[in-house]
Specification:
Blueprint (H helix, E strand, L loop, with lengths): L16 H13 L1 E15 L14 E13 L20 H8 L4 H12 L3
Helix pairs in contact: 2-3
């Protein structure tokens, strides 16, 4: 079964969050950021015994959430099968909120916030 999710990732050694954001978005979607506005920063502390994926920081992680205008590059990389990416779509906040609304209510709420901020 296919599920939609947001692009994301982790910092490489010595990398700041903004550089990681550009890199991860390019690697996972082939999109380049035209304009960027941070929405929030989440400091997360997990009560789980182990991270959901072995390479993720645990028990503490930080999530930076931004709204952005992007463009898809003509020379964008093909999605990597190792990333389990079957399709990439760029859509308006309202469409994304509806797409994520049932399964990922926190993602849907972030899209609605981005829309309220002037999308």
């Amino acid at each position: 079964m296919h599920k939609w999710t947001l692009p994301g990732g982790r910092l490489e050694v010595g990398e700041d969050w903004l550089t990681a954001l550009h890199r991860e978005l390019w690697e996972e979607t082939g999109a380049q950021i035209v304009a960027l506005q941070p929405i929030g920063l989440y400091d997360c502390l997990s009560a789980a015994a182990a991270p959901p994926r072995p390479y993720l920081p645990h028990p503490r992680s930080v999530r930076v959430v931004c709204r952005a205008s992007v463009t898809l590059a003509d020379d964008r990389p093909a999605p990597s099968l190792s990333d389990d990416i079957a399709e990439v779509q760029i859509m308006h906040y309202q469409a994304a909120a509806q797409l994520f609304g049932l399964e990922y209510q926190d993602f849907a709420a972030l899209y609605q916030l981005a829309q309220a901020m002037g999308g």
